[in-house]
TrEMBL record:
Keywords: Methyltransferase, Transferase. It comes from Hypoxylon rubiginosum. This is S-adenosyl-L-methionine-dependent methyltransferase. It comes from the Eukaryota.
Amino acid sequence: MADQPTAPSAPGPSTSPQPAATVVSNQPQLVPAPQTEEEAEDDFDGSDADSALGDDLASSTNSITSSIYEYRTIRGRTYHSEKHDSQYFTPNDEQQMQSQDITHHYLTIMLDDKLFLAPVKDDMEKILDVGTGTGIWAIDVGDQFPNAEVTGTDLSPTQPVWVPPNVRFEIDDCTKEWTWASDNFDFIHMRYLFGAVSDWDALIAQAYRCCKPGGWVQSCECDVIMSSDDDTIKEDSIITTFWNPLWRELSSKLGISFMVIQEGLQNKGFEKAGFVDVHEANYKIPIGGWARDPKLAEIGEYTVLAMINDLDGYTMVPWNIVHGENTPGYRETLAFLRRELRTLKSRGIHPYMKVRYVYGRKP
Ligand SMILES: C[S@@+](CC[C@H](N)C(=O)[O-])C[C@H]1O[C@@H](n2cnc3c(N)ncnc32)[C@H](O)[C@@H]1O
């Protein structure tokens, strides 16, 4: 095994947000399930990358994968990818699209099958999904609101062709001046744009302008830094030495945040833009199926699946930017990370990431 790269020194975290928002959340307590004797015995010895022994995912991946595709096939969804957009850190190919759809799936489970939290009205006419990705949220919301016109925008034309008649997609860079008319949309939805936006105030101000008075804007973001509440992520963990520093360093190098929650960027943007009735809902999404609560355990199976499905796609460009394209050790580091992610539960490691929803009404 090659040496792991030395963790780059991380820039200091910015100040915690002091949101003016009403905080709502009904997440079950995130605590680990007791380990079975078998799991405890299947301790990781670091010697076999592909062994099923100690591999938490080996038995569950197939059923998870087939069930999500069964669901998606029933809904008639297909995907295609066109070209890679060089301004954004993940590819836009099939592999990455799969991970985006798995992400949509676990976020939907997290919200108890709801697509959003904002208390929008039933007779919405126009909905905008900014940075729509595969368009999966826009399609689902189009199904739920057949009388609304739903527009999904993205840098990349990766959305399916066969979609509900009230859903359409456009290529648009959300960090540029929006060309939409003011007071235009009943609901503007933005999700998982971390790493894509350098000026969150400007983005949210544009959403405010284009939202109808009385309409709602909702932002959902994830901090990619992994934490544990029980100190089970150790100093020598690949999460500590590679994963977490990678995103801190990348944020600093690009001037684009991957820690939108920690920096309170959603809250600040909503406050500055002038929204009222601002609410925030915070969740801890477990990485791996280690949680005692069955719903959180299921979510954890999907989060780790989304990651392992395309670790390359998530980390290749960040590695090149942070460590340099020709710096050796990338493949070995990734193999090590993959092994760690596949054995979190059996090794008693309990990481999670934070997800925050902020939504507010335009007066
Ligand atoms: C992690 S994906 C999330 C997709 C979708 N919002 C979801 O939650 O399923 C981020 C998406 O943002 C898009 N994106 C990145 N930068 C963008 C920009 N400047 N303007 C519009 N879309 C952008 C990417 O192409 C990608 O499809």
